[in-house]
């Protein structure tokens, strides 16, 4: 898909978007950030329009986002609901990656469940088999869920979901990345309902010096509060 002319420029600079999710249907909105957003001026963020912030914490077996701790602390101090995501790589074991996440992300009440970022872009060249991916991903999920007592959310592109996840992982909530649906709601290949929709990568937010990803939650405030506050019952050993 190409966008040309004046419209293309307005889109490129984040002045217009392709998707405009209805605010009545999707009242809970948020952003996701990482060190790519540089130094955020937290005093300028409009908390009335940002209900949650998902932030990158870790990647692979040892990378820790250099701005994560400060972002987490500042957002929490402002009373914003936060969550942390891990970029899952194909070149490290699930156990090693889970340990990296647990070492980095505080275990605190009133936060969103852990998020596992699953995509091909920026990942290792060698792509795993279905069985190989499931083995390592299942290990990561089990360790992190047991520690935080919350069921991890899977962030996915359609490409990744179609290849590895469709008709699988029925218990895992889905955060779908879909920038080009032209105001049509994203549809997963197997018809599963998604929980979060990352609908733009070119948002402009006061206080953030770069473009930023925009997201909506698929539910109302009561459902969002339950997601934040409900713990998963652990299986008896």
Describe the 3D structure.
The chain is an alpha/beta fold and 237 residues long. It is built from 6 helices and 9 strands, in the order αβββαβαβαβαβββα. An 8-stranded mixed beta barrel has the order 1-2-4-5-6-7-8-9. A hairpin with an 8-residue loop joins strand 8 and strand 9. Helix 3 (94-104) packs parallel to helix 4. Residues 9-15 have low confidence and may be disordered.
Please specify the SSE layout and strand pairing:
Elements: H1 5-12, E1 29-33, E2 52-59, E3 63-64, H2 68-77, E4 81-87, H3 94-104, E5 115-118, H4 130-148, E6 153-157, H5 158-165, E7 174-177, E8 196-203, E9 212-217, H6 221-229
Parallel strand pairs: 1-2, 2-4, 4-5, 5-6, 6-7, 7-8
Antiparallel strand pairs: 1-9, 2-3, 8-9
Helix pairs in contact: 3-4
Strand order of the biggest β-sheet: 1-2-4-5-6-7-8-9
> Could you give the order of the helices and strands?
HEEEHEHEHEHEEEH
Tally of individual helices: 6
Total strand segments? 9
State the distance separating the first and last CA atoms: 51 Å
Low-confidence stretches: 9-15
- State the share of residues found in helices, binned by percent: 25-40%
Which sheet architecture does the biggest sheet show? Answer: 8 strands, mixed, barrel
Name the structural class.
Answer: alpha/beta
Shape: globular
Determine the mean pLDDT.
92
Q: What does the radius of gyration come to?
A: 17 Å
DSSP strand content:
15-25%
Task: Write a brief caption for the model.
The chain is α/β, with parallel strands linked by helices. It contains six helices and nine strands, in the order H-E-E-E-H-E-H-E-H-E-H-E-E-E-H. The radius of gyration is 17 Å and the shape is globular.
